[in-house]
Amino acid sequence: MTIKNKRPFRIECRNKAASFNTACDENFLEAAKQQGFRLLRGCKNGVCEVCESTLIHGAVFYRASTGIRKAAPGESFLFCTAFAQGPAEILLRRVLAPGEFIVKAMACQIESIELLDNTDVYRVVLQTPAGNVPDYVAGQYLEVILPNGERNAFSIANRPDGRRLELHIQHLPDRDNSRLLLQALQEGKSIQVELPKGECTLKQTGTDKAFFVAAGTGFTQMKALLEEAFEQGADQQLYLYWGARRPQDLYMAELPEKWQREYENFHFVPVVGDLLPDQEWDGHVGMLHDAMIQDHGKFDDATVYASGSPNMVYSVTDTLIQYGLSDECVFSDVFAYAPRK
């Protein structure tokens, strides 16, 4: 069958409240993947039937063993073999729309726990169960579920990398749940987690600059976001402003220093808040937003990702908005878990 009309069509996905565009000669799965849809698993060639979908109305064709067939309303077809001759509305099953994730609880093996030199931060590496690759994107977080049922949220420090999950956990000995967590990690072989969560992920904002602003272990989330930006070949100028009380609290500074040598468009700016009289430091001292304003002056062509305490995030964003930052170009999980009243 020859389809002559090359005009892009919109395919509405009723049960996902989402849509994607396709040309009449495009495979649904390939077109949708380019627009952020994801197939959970399967063969991608019409054998496993994982992506079975149903036509509500419109002109949808699919490849069957007998050749090209036209789907009738109410008929099921395989998303990975389908294409359209016009606008259509369908029901999707195991194809996830952009931003859609299935939150899962799982017991992860504790592969390693390492106290980083001269810090109170532990680098913890977990492995998800065999055959269970976690579905998340860089910038999202998980919750560790302690034996007593308490939950602790931690950003995932690595972009998706098979079954591996890296966490950076600051030990706070005066807090009961911190002591319980460290005990569970040091004494157990596995730990229960739930993921993915959070919406502070890389966005297509069209700005020339992107600022990744972190305080303390907020670097964890920025690390994953930057790794993803490097992997995608981002052409923006990328700036990491990492704030800590003292120089030794920049617990993994050698990594962004390495990135700065490797990527021409990446710039690392550490900011220290409190120097001892005998400490030497030739960088910024003070507040993160003050350092950013001193270096750049205006932020009307910038995207900002921020991770840290609510006070830090709101202080940074409020100040930078006064210097031109659009409130549509600033992203942080703080806005969801600690919204202003």
Automatic annotation (TrEMBL):
InterPro entries in UniProt: 2Fe-2S_ferredoxin-like_sf, 2Fe-2S_ferredoxin-type, Beta-grasp_dom_sf, Cbr1-like_FAD-bd_dom, FAD-bd_FR_type, FNR_nucleotide-bd, MRET, OxRdtase_FAD/NAD-bd
Q: Which domain of life is it from?
A: Bacteria
Keywords assigned by UniProt, alphabetized: Luminescence, Oxidoreductase
Domain (FAD-binding FR-type) ranges: 103-203
Q: Name one Pfam family in it.
A: Fer2
Q: Which family does it belong to?
A: Belongs to the Fre/LuxG FAD/NAD(P) flavoprotein oxidoreductase family.
The molecule here is called FAD-binding FR-type domain-containing protein
